[in-house]
Amino acid sequence: MALSGFEGFEKRLELHFSGDDPKNVGLGLRLLDFETLDEQILQAVQCTVVSAVANHYFDAYVLSESSLFVYPTKIIIKTCGTTQLLKSVAPLLHHASSLGLTLTSCRYTRGNFIFPAAQPFPHDSFQNEVVYLEDSLPDSLCYRKASVMPSKTPSHSWHVFSASTEATSYPLNGDVMYTIEICMTELDRDLARSFFQRPGDGKNGDTAGKEMTEITGIGEIIPGALICDFAFDPCGYSMNGIDGDRHSTIHVTPEDGFSYASYECVGSVYDCDDVVRVLKRVFKVFRPATMSVSTTCASHEVWTLVAGALEPLGMKCRSCAVDEFPAAGNVVYQTFTARRNK
């Protein structure tokens, strides 16, 4: 095991706002110009934009460390390495306020860091992260909860902080959406090699990224999605997928000894069959020895499909933890390890 290396496990922040000005034709946060995002928000986090794509619903940015999604009244920032994600909160709230937007909920999630000692403040402990968030958020978000969801796999636990102006969340238009966050470690070595660039092949990050998307089967996970991908030199890969108003994202740290990959997507509980298909395709791209799946949803339906999708592929469910959070609804955290060959 390497003593130190690149931290694959991401920190994820999701903020929701209300009060979009009708004069802005529903653009809201999308009115934040690139300079503001890059110089005043991402610079505080210590990362930059390497690629971007957009559609009618939202803007998606691949970052030097993970991803940024900007919707009219929602923003999601996911960063890995030693980034200081929570330092984005204050500038984000400032710029949202200047657009007439008011924060209504906040959710912060992350797994266990592989190299916790390398993390800077406030990410050096979950306690410090929670205190930092508590101090950064307005008092109007009075329903707050922080919890570490355990597992029987020592290297995996799930940290969740949620705050909201409401005690519970009510789905808009009657649709119940879910978010799935998958963390995978000990990737299959042969499959992980696909995320290394060949020295001297002359390919840039965009060209090499497209090749990796194709040869690994990532492009088939959600076949209709518009994909924005990027390969890092000498290794590593990120992609954002856009499918209507839904995003998905993958990040890969392929180095042996601390290999890691993550997959995230959102969907509707009315399309539950998609969950099984997506999980199977994601597993086949990476074949990890250990994986965790966090499902966030106001409904109970989605998480029950997870084990049914993964166990036939040789993964055994080791633990399952359930908790309820303001605005987020139920968070179900399941861990899986590869069955040993007899």
Task: Write up what this structure looks like.
This protein is of the alpha+beta class and 342 residues long. It contains seven helices and 16 strands. The chain has helices at residues 34-45, 89-98, 126-136, 189-192, 205-216, 272-286, 304-310, and strands spanning 11-18, 49-54, 59-63, 66-70, 74-79, 102-110, 143-149, 158-164, 177-185, 226-231, 237-243, 246-253, 260-268, 290-297, 315-325, 329-338. It has an eight-stranded antiparallel beta sheet. Strands 10-11-12-13-9-14-16-15 form an eight-stranded antiparallel beta sheet. The model has no long low-confidence stretch (mean pLDDT 89).
Given helix and strand content, the structural type is: alpha+beta
Helix amount, in percent?
10-25%
Largest sheet: 8 strands, antiparallel
For the residues shown, what is the average pLDDT? 89
Multimeric state of these chains?
single chain
Total count of helical runs of at least 4 residues? 7
Number of strands: 16
What series of H and E elements makes up the topology? EHEEEEHEHEEEHHEEEEHEHEE
Which strand order spans the largest sheet, edge to edge or round the barrel? 2-3-4-5-1-6-8-7
Low-confidence stretches: none
Radius of gyration, in Å, reads 19 Å
N→C terminal distance: 25 Å
Form type: globular
